[in-house]
Design brief:
Helix content is about 50%, strand content about 10%. It contains 16 helices and 13 strands. Helix 8 runs antiparallel to helix 10, helix 12 crosses helix 14 and helix 12 runs parallel beside helix 16. A hairpin with a 2-residue loop joins strand 2 and strand 3. The structure holds protoporphyrin IX containing FE.
Length: about 450
Amino acid sequence: MATDHAGITQAPGALPIVGHLFPLLRDPLHFLKTLPSYGDLVQIRLGPQRAVVVCRPDLVQDVLLQDRIFDKGGPIIERVGNALGAGIASCPHSAHRRQRRSLQPAFSRASLREYAAIMTEQIDVLTSGWGDGRTVDAGAQMYGLASETISRTLFTADAARPAVDTVTVCLPDIFRGIYQQAVLPPLLRRLPLPSNRRYERARNRAWAAVSKTIGLYRQDGKNHGDVLSMLLATRDDAGEALGDAEIHAQIMTLLVAGIDTTAVALTWAVHLLCQYPDVQERLRSHTAKVLGTRTATWDDLPQLDLARRVVTETLRLYPPGWLFTRTTTTEARLADAVIPPDTTLVYSPYLMHHDARFNPRPDRFDPDRWLPEHPHERGAFIPFGGGARKCIGDNYAMNLATLALATIVTRWRLSHGNLQPPRVEPRMTLSPHQVQVRVECLDRASA
Ligand code: HEM
């Protein structure tokens, strides 16, 4: 095994020109899991580009906490910047503090409480729309719930409805395109392949729809009590309003960062509840005591602790964001290695959560490992990242997933009879392919 710099090992199996492209497209999770056996810092190749995968949780924490040295960068971030504009998730450290301050009020406790009302309304629509004994595509259902809820949180005005619809239709091609474009060598990225064209078309349509909505909001000048109105009213430290380009980038970023991740988390949770019917029954008897036949609301959250643990354990087993990158802004030290400037580093919540050296029984679904009295049952846990760039929507996502799951199981029994986990689609998120679920109504009066 070759070593380029002291402490960094090269992963074996790189092919000329394409490097590790094939294992990354074919079975990225398996490929990732093989890397820690070569060292703590393992270099992989994507065409001419190289990236160092960080394979130890304490080193990942070092990277996340030193966001000035390990800044946003690398091929995925370049593609995210290209798709969304210079928003909070892709901007460099120098712009980040200001952008985070301008967005933070949208995720305050008071705002989350208001958004919970939209969540309850949308969960009610979803859970009233199924037919007894029918089979539903859990991925599509959860995507519908997450996209309706998050889009309405961002823009509630009726005039924004066409934009919500356009964005909802375009986002899947954008998610897929960003990942494919990030792993393709630059030459292939520019070819007029059908996948490249689909991505460009989707990105341009969503971009135009959001631009139009910002224009409509500026024209009517009203406060709609949503995130877009808040951004339009924001003044920075110098008292300046945010420009259209920045507002556009933040809205696109929130849509892309929030919808697919939350939908994927919920889809995995539904799959796991089918795979573990005993957990589903326990959850049902627990939530039925809290909710009766009501849809879960903000005020129920403190009592829905088992539902929250199921969501947490789902995020541990299948973290929707499975691969992120950073770039060194200067020569950096990590463990004993000296990392040159401009090196791309990769961290993977999936890899950290599944490494048996740091997690007891990592592949077992056990929501009770999150009980306060079981601290030794859990190890590295970073589904929302960490440090200054930690997910701004973590509480939003946890609330939506907890309220949705609690309501779904009190009203419906879920089953699919598949003991094998569904195939994983390599996209920007760790997405399960085709989770078909039979739903049986428990509240016959409303079926
Ligand atoms: C289960 C659902 C979610 C998961 C697993 C998730 C995961 C993550 C992760 C791992 C990061 C850090 C990325 C990095 O280190 O490079 C992140 C950042 C971010 N997330 Fe989430 N996310 C979720 C839901 C949401 C929601 C609902 C929103 C907003 C509506 C959101 C908005 C963002 C934003 C804006 C950032 C960038 C933060 C910054 O750089 O300051 N996410 N998310």
